[in-house]
Amino acid sequence: METTAHFVALWVEARTRFSNQLKTMQAEDLKKKLGDSPNTIGFLIRHIGDVELLFSKNVFGNSAVQVSAKTVIAGHDTGEWTDLTSLLAYVEESFETLQSTLLTQPDSVWSEVITTKEFGTKTKAEALGRIVSHAAYHAGQIAIINKYAN
Question: What is the pTM of this model?
Fold first, then answer.
């Protein structure tokens, strides 16, 4: 599983853009948002966890995953993501779940094609690129909100 190991290492390293911010996150940061922007930091943290669990289950076939992707279902920030301890536990679970799911993938799986309503038809390697960029994209939003929001 040389290819799989390399892909997992890539994803883990890219996710540090998100996970490193969590080390200094404070409960009062969770309600921050920029101006009329619809999303708080708390929502974005929960959203990253939701999507990682969805990828584990729906893209990479981990049928043991139980997920209620509340941020995806609601489609907007409901203001409920204010408990830092539970959010940190949730994204630690989503990280561990996706990592263990990815590590079970044989090298041959990366060229398999998958179709989802969210991002169309992609190889599993391309889908991995999607989850890598998803976490990095929202990590950037979190960093900007945390730096510039009141």
Answer: 0.95
